[in-house]
UniProtKB/TrEMBL annotation:
Coiled coil: none annotated. SUPFAM superfamilies: MFS general substrate transporter. This is YbfB/YjiJ family MFS transporter. The chain crosses the membrane at residues 12-34, 46-70, 82-99, 105-129, 136-158, 170-187, 221-242, 254-271, 283-300, 306-328, 340-359. InterPro entries: MFS_4, MFS_trans_sf. Keywords: Membrane, Transmembrane, Transmembrane helix. Pfam families: MFS_4.
């Protein structure tokens, strides 16, 4: 049997769907449900805005720790053991958040949620990417990230549709109702994803020992640090900024996050396509420019225009920067597989920590949330500059682990 032959259509879509559902559960719901819920929880008296920013920071600390753990547990056999557990722990923490009014316990649950999210966000796409690469289908890897966009849309609906019926911690009940079955099904499917064929050539020891960060990959890592800081402020605090800049009852106060979520639905297909046509490096430069203008929207055009521009432009770009960076880095180091994915996401998570932390410091000094977006704009300018210094890889296909990246004619 040809190890790179495409699997039957049913077998192709099942792993992609399992990874997408995993990202719905842990990222779209487990993590980003906090964004539309935060102003509601503040209005309920469940927490203050400064405490909300601090809790967001601890969730990102957990995400960073989870991604660091995934660097250590990057072998496929380890992933198959850890990934189902992390999925179920994430769903359990989402459920538990609906049954506590204790702010300290809530913080601990958000930390646990972040750790498990970091593990899943690294391991699920990495496991399925390796599976796709073995079948010569790695160019489809971006489609997994539809799960994040779909999860954002779902979490927005689950936060706002029952908003008048629930209060405080009970606002997490609809989230858990969706996350638990999705996590359980994904854990079953990903845990039994088929392994490489017996007798397949092992990855050379020399390729495993090559450094993750060298002259070729350093610009990618530096740019991704800027991307992590650049996107986190609008994706965490956009509803808060909408409430700062818009009159009471304005439709964008709840609608901004819905528009951002809707914008993400086309992002995976769009940037997958642009990366194929332009090359991943060039598409990534365009991505960061558009994303930076979006983050600057509420600063350049305060009010309806700026909030709407931010929701549209950040929503349609931030997932693209993730999938393009993952593919570009793996093309530069085709033998590193899940290890380079984990390292990038660890850096991304570390950069994200500074956003809510600096937002909290600024709020404690009487500043507005809108002003903190200047930090995001600067970070994306940084990301653009470093991406321009990244070597363009001929072709955009991702080689299977243990094989040299094939040359391909430029588009």
């Amino acid at each position: 049997m040809n190890p790179h032959a495409a699997p039957p259509p049913g077998r192709l879509w099942l792993p992609l769907l399992a990874a997408a559902f995993a990202l719905v559960a842990v990222h779209g719901i487990g993590r980003f449900a906090y964004t539309p819920l935060l102003p509601l929880l503040v209005a309920d008296g469940f927490m203050g805005l400064d405490a909300g920013a601090a809790i967001a920071t601890w969730n990102y600390v957990g995400y960073l720790l989870g991604a660091m753990l995934a660097i250590r547990l990057h072998e496929p056999a380890q992933i198959r053991r850890i990934l189902p557990v992390a999925l179920l722990v994430n769903a359990a923490s989402t459920l538990a958040q609906g049954f506590t009014d204790n702010l300290m316990l809530f913080l601990v649950l958000r930390l646990i949620n972040g750790v498990s999210n970091g593990v899943v966000f690294v391991q699920a796409p990495a496991l399925v990417l390796e599976w796709l690469a073995r079948h010569g289908l790695a160019s489809l890897s971006g489609l997994m990230y539809f799960g994040v966009g779909g999860g954002l849309l779902l979490s927005n609906a689950l936060a706002n549709l029952p908003a008048d019926l629930l209060h405080g911690a009970a606002r997490w009940w609809p989230m858990a109702l969706a996350a638990v079955p999705l996590a359980w099904w994904s854990a079953r499917q990903l845990g039994r994803l088929d392994r490489p064929q017996a007798g397949a050539p092992a990855q050379p020891a020399a390729s495993r020992a090559t450094p993750l960060i060298d002259r070729a990959s350093l610009p990618v890592f530096m740019a991704y640090a800027g991307a992590g800081l650049g996107y986190i402020l609008p994706t965490t605090f956009l509803p808060v900024v909408a409430r700062e800049q818009l009159p009471a009852g304005h439709w964008l106060q709840s609608g901004a996050w819905l528009i951002l979520a809707l914008s993400t639905l086309a992002a995976a297909w769009l940037w997958n396509r642009l990366g194929s046509r332009m090359g991943d490096r060039n598409a990534l430069v365009l991505n960061y420019v558009v994303q930076g203008i979006g983050v600057a929207g509420p600063l350049l055009w305060p009010g309806t225009v700026g909030v709407l521009a931010c929701a549209l432009m950040v929503g349609c770009t931030f997932l693209g920067s993730v999938l393009l960076t993952q593919r570009l880095a793996r093309a530069l180091h085709p033998h590193q597989g899940p290890r380079i994915s984990a390292a990038l996401i660890t850096l991304y998570g570390f950069a994200q920590l500074t956003g809510p932390w600096m937002a909290r410091l600024w709020l404690e000094r009487g500043g507005s949330m809108s002003d903190t977006y200047w930090l995001g704009v600067g970070a994306l300018v940084w990301a653009t500059g470093w991406t321009l210094r990244t070597r363009q890889v001929v072709g955009h296909a991702v080689a299977p682990a243990g094989a040299a990246l094939p040359a391909a004619p430029a588009d």
